[in-house]
Amino acid sequence: MGSSEAAKWMSALSDDQAGVFTFSNCVCLSDMYGDGDTKLVVAHVGSSKFNMRLKVFKGVTVVGESAIADMPTAVISFYNEKITLPAIGVASGSYIRIYKNLKPFYQV
Hints:
Layout: H1 3-6, E1 27-30, E2 39-44, E3 53-58, E4 61-67, E5 72-78, E6 87-92, E7 95-100, E8 103-107
Antiparallel strand pairs: 1-2, 2-3, 3-4, 5-6, 6-7, 7-8
């Protein structure tokens, strides 16, 4: 790989002490606050049905989090009513829960 090709890649952080346990379908990218900065949204599964959280990372720092009521199975970011701020959909149990600004908004 040439130096120009290597410059296109970024080194990923691997931290066993970060305390995040999730699955690949419980991770998405989103411009959560409409500031043009894409953040990593992770549904942290927790440990044995405790401490399940929706976490937002900017780089390696947690910039927001919210409790999740049930075991998450998938997460998606989408635009619904207001185009400037996305909503986060979390599939958990037999429901899809919609979060706006990391607050529970609607349950389907």
